[in-house]
Structures are given as C-alpha cells and as structure tokens.
Known about the structure:
Aldehyde Dehydrogenase, Chain A, domain 1
Amino acid sequence: MISGQHYIGGHWCGEPDAANTSFNPAQNTALPWCFAEAGEAELHSLTEQATAAFALYRYVTAAARADFLDSIAAELQQRQAEIVSAMVQETALAPARAESELGRTCNQLRLFATELRTPASDCRLPALPERQPLPRPALRLGKVPLGPVVVFAASNFPLAFSVAGGDTASALAAGCPVIVKAHNAHPATSELAAKAIAAAADKTAMPAGIFSLVHARQHAFSEALIRHPAVKAVAFTGSEQLGMHFQRLIWQRPKPIPFFAEMGSQNPLFVLPQYLAQHGESFASQLAQSVLNGCGQFCTRPGLVFVPKGAEALVAALKQHFSQAQTGAMLTVKIASHYRAGCQALQQTDGVSLLAEGQGEETACYTKPRLFATSANAFMQQGVLQQEVFGPATVLIECADLTQMQMLATTLQGQLTATLYATEAELVSAQGLLNELELHCGRLIYAQMPTGVEVCAAMQHGGPFPASTDSRYTAVGSQAVQRFLRPLCYQNFPSQNGDTAWTGK
Amino acid sequence: MISGQHYIGGHWCGEPDAANTSFNPAQNTALPWCFAEAGEAELHSLTEQATAAFALYRYVTAAARADFLDSIAAELQQRQAEIVSAMVQETALAPARAESELGRTCNQLRLFATELRTPASDCRLPALPERQPLPRPALRLGKVPLGPVVVFAASNFPLAFSVAGGDTASALAAGCPVIVKAHNAHPATSELAAKAIAAAADKTAMPAGIFSLVHARQHAFSEALIRHPAVKAVAFTGSEQLGMHFQRLIWQRPKPIPFFAEMGSQNPLFVLPQYLAQHGESFASQLAQSVLNGCGQFCTRPGLVFVPKGAEALVAALKQHFSQAQTGAMLTVKIASHYRAGCQALQQTDGVSLLAEGQGEETACYTKPRLFATSANAFMQQGVLQQEVFGPATVLIECADLTQMQMLATTLQGQLTATLYATEAELVSAQGLLNELELHCGRLIYAQMPTGVEVCAAMQHGGPFPASTDSRYTAVGSQAVQRFLRPLCYQNFPSQNGDTAWTGK
C-alpha cells in the first residue's frame, strides 16, 4: 500500500496529487500510485524537525546509532517482497538485480553499524606540565557531526544509492539527521524504504526528525532546500549538469557547506596486446557484459576502451555481442532520450564509426546497445568523446602502441575508475601508463571490470573533478562517513581521559 | 644579503624594483631592501616548474621527503641570527618572539618528518576468491598528493605561517610542490626562509621546481595564480574579506580545487562566577596578557569575554592592565588603521562603552590597547560586535546568568576556539553551554587562554565558517597534510601486498 505522502517529523503527511504518478518504463504506462508535491510548508517543517532532531541525535551513542542502522537493515529485509515488486515496476530492472541490491543495501547499513561498534579511538595527548619552554595541555581530537544532511537519491541504484542507501547510512552513522529528496523515477520504492527507516527509528527510539522523505518534482523545492540555513551538508549522485547547478547554488549561500556530488565517469579501460592474445575471448565477453548489464546504467560502466592496433578478433567478438543484444528499457524516458542523443552525437562525429547495434526497436524507454570505434587522433581532437554517454554503449579507441595510450591518458578528465588489462610482464612496461592513470581516477584496477564496487573500508568511489566535486571524499565504503564529520579538539578538560557527555563520535 | 628576487625552478631571478621596498613598522621607515614584482613570465615559469617537479616528487619516498623537511629545519636554524634580525625589522615583533617562532617552525617541520617516517599503514583487504555470491578482489586504499599547492603566507606569523610554515610543511609532506606568494609585510624574512628551503632542496636532491617563492604586490598576480590550471590546491591565512575573494575566484575555475582559508576568529571566552571568585586576579592578568601580547595579533586572541554580572573586581583589574599598557607597533599601517577603525566602530555602537585604553600616541603602525564593555542585549542587537577586530582589544559582555550565556552562545559565528573558565563544580552545570559552544568552534578549551596553539597530532586549527572555508580540515598539526591528499583505491594488482612504484603515501 503506497500512500504517496511525505514522511516528516515522524508522520506521514501531504495530499497525493493525481497528476504526479509513478511510471513503469518497461510498459511505458503510469503506475497506480500518485505522490504529494512538497512546498514551503514542508520545507519549513522538514528543516525545523531535522534541527530539533540534531540537538538530540548528536548525543546518541555510537552503539545506539549502530542499533538503529542494523534495525533499518532488518526492516528492509522484512519488506523485501514488496520493495522488490515496486522497484521492478518503477525501474524495469530485473527482480534478481533488485534482490541483490537490497542485500547490498542491508550489508552497507551493517558495515556502518560494525564501524560504529569499533570506533577509531580519538587521538589523545596527555598534559606535559613540566615541559620546557612551555607546558603542553591535555588534548583530545574528537570528531563531531556537521548537522542535518540533505540526500539527493540516484536514479540508477533505487535502493543502494537512494532512500536507505550509502549517503543516508553514512550520514546517520556520523550523527547527522537526514532529509532525503526522493528520486522521481522511483517514488514508491522510496516510500517503502522510508517505511523501513521509520519503523527502525520507532523501535530504537530515535528522535522524530531524524529522517525525512520528501517528494518534489519541481527543482525550485530542491533549490530552496539546499539553500536553507538549517542544512549543513548535501550529498548528491547524478549528472554533472545537475550536480554543478546545485554546487553553484551552494556556493551562493551566505555560509558555504560541504557538498559531495558523484557525477559519473567514462571509466577508461586499457588493454595491452599480449593480454589480448592470451585472453581475448574472455575479455570480449566480460567487457560486453560490463557495458550491457542493467542497460549500462552504472556510473562505473567502461565507456572508453583503448585497444592496441590489430585487435580484429576482439572487434569481431564485440560486434557479435552487441549486435545480438536486445533493446532494453532504461530507467526513464529522459535517460533513454539522453542516451539516444549521446549516441547520435557520437555517430555524427568525424572519425567515429558505429560498429554494431542491438536488436529491436527504440521507443520510449527502450534503447539499443551500441558499439563505436574511433582513432587515437579523433579522440584527441573531438571533445564529444570525453563526454559520458550514460547507457549501454562504449567506444573503442585504436592506439598504435603503449606510448600512444599513455599520451591519450594525459588528456583524460577526472574519472571514478581507470582499468588496465595486461599480462604481468606487460604490467612492468606499463608503469608509465599506470602512473599517468593514477592522476585521473579514484580507483585504479588491474584486469577486472570496473562495474561492481565493493562496499568496504578500502573503497574509494569518487575521483578528480568532474567525477566528483571533491576528490578527497568517497560516496561508497566506510570512509563515506568522513564527508559529514569535522574534527574538534578538546583542550585541558578534567574529564579528558574519560568519556564526556559532549563527546562526538 | 637580500637579493629581492623570486626563487623559481631552482634559480633566483627577477629585477628588484626600487619602489617595492620593505617597511619597518616600528620606525615608520622604508628598509634598504627592495623586491621584484612578478608578472606573466613568472606565472608561466612557476607553474611549469611546479608541474614538472610534481611528476618527480610524487614518487619521492616518504623517508626522503622527511629528510628534506628535517634539512629545511636545520638550514633555518643555521640562519637564525639573520632571519631574526630581518623579521624584527620588518614586523616590529620582539627578538624573543622571533626566536621562539623560529623554533616552533623548525619543530613543525620535524613533526611532519616524524609522521612521514611512521606512516599510517594503508587499509588493505585481501582477495576472497571463494566468497559467495561474488568474490572480493584484493583492495588497497592509498593516499596520493593532489599536485602543486599555492600558499598565501600570513602576516602575523612571519615564520610559522609563512614561507617555511605549516602550510608549506604539510604540502611538502603530502608530496606536493609548493609555490609561496610572499607576504608583502615581510619579504626579506621570506627570502631568507626561501634560501633555507632552497639549500635543503639542493642537499637532499629534490627536483628543481619543488619550491618557489614569488613577490607580487598586485592582487592581479595572485588572482591569476590561483586560477591557473596547474595549481591543484590553495592554502591561505588572512582576512575573511580576502579569503572569500580568493574563494569566489576558485569557484569560477572550470575545475574547482580545494581551497583552505583560515580567516580568523573572535574566540569567545566565558567565565563563571565561582571561578572568578576563586581565581579572579590571575584570570584578569592571564586575559590581559593573552589580548595584549604581540599587539593582539593572533587569530586565537580572545575578543569576546562573557562575564557574570557583579564582576566589578575583574573589570577594575582589567582596566588597570589595559590603561597601563603602552602603544605598540602593529605589523603594517593597513593593519593598524583597520584596528583603529574597528575600535572606532565599536565605540560608536549603542550600548558599547570604552572602559580603558593604553598609554601613548597612535601614529602610523602604533595603536593603543583597548578594553570595551557591553550588555547582553546590545550583543544580541549589534552585528558589529560579531566582527573580528584584529589587534589588542577585547569586549566584555555582562551576562545575567549561565542561561543568558548559553543563549548568547547560540548566536555566535563559527570560531577557531571557544573557552570556558569554570570551577569543576560549575563545569557540571555548564554542560548545556559547552554543548552549544561545540557547534561553533574547532577547539574547545577549559580554563586556559586560546592563544598558544600546540602543534601536534591532536590539534584542530580551523572551525565552522567563517573561521575557515572547510571545518573538516586543520591548518595546524599533523592532520594539516590531509588537505593535500586524496584516497586512491588499488584493485586486484599482483603486487598488492608489496610496495609498488606508483604507491603514494
């Protein structure tokens, strides 16, 4: 049962508007669910509730926050059937994918819970009253939460990067109340995830405004939300265009606040000749799967593949994979039409050719996978080749040799990932290429596809601009919590060596 | 011997301009040293050299970087007499202060060297090839330097926050080449510190462009420098006005970069009645010393002192301290005239009264210490009371009780520090005040003056805006290095468990 309401201050509220329906991309039809539209009243109430909740939540112990996160995971799993059903209808993603994403979302919440139960100990330096020429005071470096965090959910991970996803989990772990702006492409899935969080907050006695969900199709609401003085940080996953629009609004605030936007990536992949000679067939099928899986709707999908000359067998194998692939329904009509426009721009670019495209008809959300090829020279000259085309397409760039690959690597924009497929012998000679790639990415991968992001303490999911707005932070993994914490030094307190009521995490 | 030249790419260059002399604030006269003025040619050469140096320096081992920093400290100490003499002439600060600041600067360099020799181990997760449903790849989270860093030196710490100061030391420790824009108020001191760095770079065989010093009185040069694409991060210490001007320029770059500005603070200090009854006299003399020392030219000088009503004895003692104090020469004519204008604005503010001022005449750089008083109501109503007046002045705010103190604390801007003087018994009842202060500062202090910043692993010298541009970073202490590093995840490399040539710190 979908109410279509906002969840604010512990209550469901707002009148669903019959015009704001959810959409089924696979069937190109409206779903029987409609949603409220937030305005000024909701903005006021949301921010007031989040501020009030922060005054309490900043003193909730790390252990209690961990219980809250674990409880959210349990509540999500209890609602698995309902959530998977809504997600499949709203996104055209496969049930198996929805199930595995739910599992990943729960594991992500539990990862932060585990981290909270084994917190890094504060750096403590005892007083040195006899030190010359000056005594040293007792000092302790703690970390405290920034305050209410606004999360803009991603379209392409309706669970793992949405209402109860990584941004929400890391902000709650940090001690920050969360306001989620539901993604318009999966509002019912969002409501169900919010119900899980609401139930967990009730069961673990969290303050009422600890979590809010709000539906708003108008950008004006989002713009007012991120400009609101009560908001102390914003997390965003989406396009560079919208991310930078929000970034500029945040820069106009009287008091700037941290904004972390993960804005996608082309994920360049380099493959060397010996590797190709030894593993060409398996490489081709891994690459095709990485590009085609889930209609290519991953921010880590490899969109640029630098291949050595003479890779005819690879090209032939990929052509076969792509031409046999069927059209698939993307998440929204807008995403599908952006994809088609991006492919058209590539096709019209001098020096770029379409090698293969998939079967079926492109209507509404349905799009064909496409394989493009170009030369190293065209890559250097055509800026359009450095723009992400979000969807099931990739571009092969033929390179004369390793030196040319390294030269092309110098021109790359900031990326979430960069990948090298090489034999161990080739790896030695490719050191210069790796050195160059290191400058352009947040994750450097050897001989594995970049899709598939491990949620763990060693992950970096971010990267130099425009992959993210700040390469020093990550959206995935336990370090994601650092976006929402700041250090606070306590000097000379008598309770210095014990816990104090005003201690943050 | 002062050449007046820039130091770029391992060479001293540029023609000193006879009009660009250094200035003696104590004597209000020009010093016999004149300096070159950088323009487009220097900008080009500086950035090219720093970029070339980065390509080499990013692979210089942590141990070699540590040797470089230690060597800078040794070279500074070898030049102590010459540096102290130049600094005293250029800044009117006392020789003892110059000597202790030199010692602190050397200790700061050695702190980073020590940290580099005991690096935090990377987070490494081994592969789990048998894990279900999906194997885990081997992952290692390293940290890599951002690239060339521009440092804008502070006026008030001509050594510790200038050419060889904390920003330079932390950027070099991170693996970033440094370009220092010399502060116009101490160019000769800057040249001597640069000579120490140059000698150390030679002795430890660092790349030629690892460090540059440039003189430029025109803001246009600084503006072009921070907009230059080769620059990957900027550190600044100075006024909010100039800091935010630079921040806005950086936001206009096609690719935004990290900018850390420490922009000063009022450093509110609260004292409770029992504490005052027991330690009033010593508190008064500590406070007077903290405000008056070095002409009050510290970003951590307490500028707002919230006192309980009935603090007549404190007021009388402070009046005596301030009225007996002599005028002193501030760092520059501009700083002195800003100070006098700030005092005048306070004096003309309704509800603010001047309780005492020092002896002597206010001419050129010389200014009188001043003690102001106001009421809690006036503090609430007059925005001017929340503007830092940089110099030897402070404002007493009389509060009815602890509740009113806590209410006033809610109105405070972001601060570097906040301090509470209370007996241990009062500390318990002041928990609410401490909770509030925690939201507004980077360092919370019990019963010690905020001036005096320990350089160590537990320090936080930053704070919520406008104390700094990003409360998640510090300008002082070993964590300052984090401003210039970003995480990089290495996935599935065969050398995963050993060191690799492309490993950053």
